[in-house]
Design brief:
151 residues, single chain, alpha+beta, three-stranded antiparallel β-sheet
Amino acid sequence: MERAATLDVLDAMIEPSGAVVLFGDNHPDVPENSWHNSCRKIIENYSTGDVVREKLHSPEWLAHEAILLASPFAEMERISIIERRVTPIERFTDRALSFSSTSRQRLGAKAGNLIRELEELMAKFASNGHVSEVVESTALIAKRSRRSSGI
């Protein structure tokens, strides 16, 4: 989506005291996440040639904060929660298949190979079919600046 244009549309739709919230997550560099880099590499291998993914990971891609700072929603705060989870191996393959660059639709017959590779990798870190992971979930809350909203 064109982020700046989307924020302009949201500016017209959202009440003056409203906000835009962007959600995300990451895996902190802790021993329980030792599987994460290998998992990411497998997904990247199957994402090769995806134009959208390449654009999102290019040096020219501006961070969301830069886009928000140039929008009516320039007042930001970030909230995060770090938690330990015990996740079934199947959820890792579900995650991989939820990305547009590695969806079943895009990969076709290769989706089965992706699933097998991820299951083999995660089995090395699993106990009773589950993997322990530490996840940081974030919310970037962007509000209109007090000057532009008249508050």
